[in-house]
Design goal:
Structural class: alpha/beta
Oligomer: single chain
Number of strands: 17
Bound molecules: ligand H79
Low-confidence stretches: none
Helix content: 10-25%
Distance between the termini: 39 Å
Radius of gyration: 23 Å
Largest sheet: 8 strands, parallel
Strand content: 15-25%
Strand order of the largest sheet: 7-6-5-4-1-10-9-8
Number of helices: 9
Length: 418
C-alpha cells in the first residue's frame, strides 16, 4: 500500500497550468478563443510550425519558484501540481528525450527544477502533471489531426515508448521525491500501455500516487471531472480539479474570478464529502500569477489560517439527507464543524437535524467563545434537533463562520429513530 495520509489529510492543493500557451493569454489574432486557454493551439486551429514559434520568445523572467511555493503555503495549500507537459507536447522542464522543451527558449532555465528544490526546502509536496496520451507536437501522439494523420492511423505505441514513457521516467528520476503523477485525457489509450505507465511510476517511486485519469481505474485515487463536486460523499480518496476563473491556462481577458466566499464554500463542500480540492492558477507568459487570483487566494488563505482545524486532517461526513441552508459540516474525531456561510437573522439560530450524538460543548472556532446550544427530541417529526445560538449577526460576518461542536464520541449518525 502506498503512503496516502499526506494526501487524504491535505485537502487543498495548488494546480499550476503554465506553458507556451501562457504567452497567448487565450487570444489569437485579436480574438478571444473560447474554452481552455491552454488548448488554444487546437481551438484556434494554429498549425504546429506557427505555434512552436512561441518557444523562440518564451522568456518568463518574472517566474520565481521560491515565491510561488511561499504563496502556496500562505494560501493554505499542502501540495502543488505543475504542468510538466500539457496537451501541446511542450516540456516545461529540461528533457533529454525531446528538444521541444523550455531549455530551448530564451529563458534556458528549468522551472520544475526550481519548484522541486523549493518544495523540498519549504516542505510542500510536489506533484507533476503529464499529458500521457495527447501530444500535439509528436506525429504519433494523440490529438493533432491538423498537422499529422488522423489519430486512427498513428503509431501511438511508438510515441508512447519513445516520448511519453521516457519523459515520465525523467520526471521521476531527476526531481527528487514526487508525491503524485497527474495524468489527463487518456481517451482511448490501450489498457496495456496504461498498465505499463503505472508500473514504470511504481518502479521508480513506489510511494508516488497516480491520479485516476491514468484510465481503467488504475489510479490510486479517483479524479472527479474538471470542476465537478459529487453530490454524495465518496469514501475512498478523491480530488476535484477546479479553475479559479473559467480557464486553466492564463487568459488576458477572463476576469470571472470566483469570490473568496465561493472558493471557501467549494473547498468545504469537497472536504465534507471526503475529497481534495486542487485549485488552479495560470501564470502569464512572464511567469506572474495574475493579481485577480492572488487577491482571492490571499483572502481564502487568511480564513484558513484561523479556521484550518476544520479542514486539514478531517474525515468525510456521512451522507446528510437534510438541507442545511446555512452551510456545511466537516468533522475530525469527536469534533463537528458547522460552517455557516449564510448567517441567520435573529434569533441567530442554526439547526442540525438528527444528530444522534450527545454534544458536550459548542464554541466559535475562531475565538473559542462558548455558545449556547440545545438538544431536543421533536415527537411529531420523530426528529432530534441540535440548535446553536450564534452571536448577534456582525455587520460583515466571516465568509464562513465555523462553529465547533465537541461530541461525546467520534461515532456519527444522522439516522432518525426507527
Ligand atoms: O488541464 C486542464 C484541461 O486542459 C484538461 N483538464 C484540466 C485539468 C482538459 N482536457 N480536456 N478537457 C479538459 C475537456 C475539454 C473539452 C474541450 Fe473542446 C476541449 C472543450 C473545448 C476544448 C473538444 C474540443 C470540444 C471542443 C473542442
Amino acid at each position: 500500500m502506498k503512503e496516502m495520509n499526506w494526501f487524504s489529510d491535505a485537502h487543498y492543493g495548488l494546480f499550476i497550468h503554465w506553458g507556451l500557451y501562457s504567452l497567448m493569454g487565450g487570444v489569437h489574432e485579436g480574438k478571444e478563443i473560447p474554452y481552455g486557454a491552454e488548448w488554444i493551439q487546437k481551438n484556434a486551429g494554429i498549425p504546429l510550425h506557427e505555434y512552436r514559434k512561441l518557444a523562440a520568445r518564451f522568456n518568463p523572467v518574472k517566474f520565481d519558484a521560491a515565491e510561488v511555493v511561499r504563496r502556496a503555503k500562505k494560501w493554505g495549500m499542502k501540495y502543488i501540481v505543475f504542468t510538466a507537459k500539457h496537451v501541446d507536447g511542450f516540456a516545461m522542464y529540461d528533457s533529454k528525450v525531446s528538444s521541444y522543451n523550455i531549455m530551448h527558449t530564451p529563458y534556458r532555465q528549468d522551472p520544475l527544477r526550481a519548484l522541486a528544490d523549493e518544495c523540498e526546502k519549504q516542505g510542500l509536496m510536489l506533484g507533476i502533471y503529464y499529458s500521457q496520451n495527447q501530444d500535439w507536437e509528436d506525429p504519433n501522439g494523440w490529438g493533432n489531426e491538423l498537422d499529422f494523420p488522423p489519430n486512427s492511423e498513428k503509431d501511438f505505441a511508438k510515441y508512447f515508448h519513445e516520448k511519453a514513457l521516457p519523459q515520465v521516467k525523467e520526471l521521476l528520476t531527476n526531481y527528487g521525491k514526487v508525491g503524485l503523477m497527474w495524468f489527463d485525457t487518456p481517451y482511448s489509450m490501450p489498457k496495456e500501455l496504461c498498465e505499463e505507465l503505472r508500473a514504470a511510476v511504481n518502479a521508480l517511486q513506489p510511494n508516488c500516487l497516480i491520479n485516476g485519469r491514468i484510465g481503467y481505474n488504475l489510479g490510486d485515487y479517483r479524479e472527479m471531472a474538471d470542476n465537478e463536486i459529487p453530490v454524495l460523499p465518496y469514501e475512498k480518496p478523491w480530488e476535484t480539479p477546479m479553475t479559479l476563473n473559467q480557464t486553466w491556462g492564463y487568459s488576458s481577458v477572463d476576469e470571472h474570478w470566483k469570490s473568496p466566499a465561493e472558493v471557501i464554500e467549494r473547498l468545504v463542500e469537497v472536504v465534507e464529502k471526503g475529497g481534495n480540492l486542487l485549485l488552479n492558477v495560470g501564470p502569464d507568459g512572464l511567469g506572474n500569477i495574475p493579481e485577480g487570483s492572488c487577491a482571492v487566494l490571499d483572502e481564502v488563505g487568511a480564513w484558513l489560517e484561523k479556521n484550518g482545524e476544520s479542514i486539514y486532517g478531517t474525515a468525510g461526513v456521512p451522507a446528510f439527507p437534510y438541507q442545511n441552508r446555512w452551510g456545511h459540516i466537516t468533522r475530525k474525531g469527536t469534533r463537528l464543524y458547522l460552517h455557516v456561510f449564510r448567517y441567520p437573522d435573529f434569533p441567530y439560530e442554526i439547526l442540525l437535524c438528527n444528530l444522534r450524538q450527545k454534544v458536550r460543548k459548542v464554541t466559535l472556532l475562531e475565538t473559542g467563545e462558548a455558545l449556547t446550544f440545545y438538544q431536543s427530541y421533536e415527537i411529531g417529526r420523530n426528529e432530534y434537533r441540535f440548535r446553536v445560538i450564534l452571536p448577534e449577526k456582525p455587520e460583515r460576518p466571516s465568509w464562513d463562520t465555523v462553529v465547533c461542536a465537541e461530541c461525546e464520541s467520534a461515532e456519527l449518525s444522522f439516522e432518525p429513530l426507527a
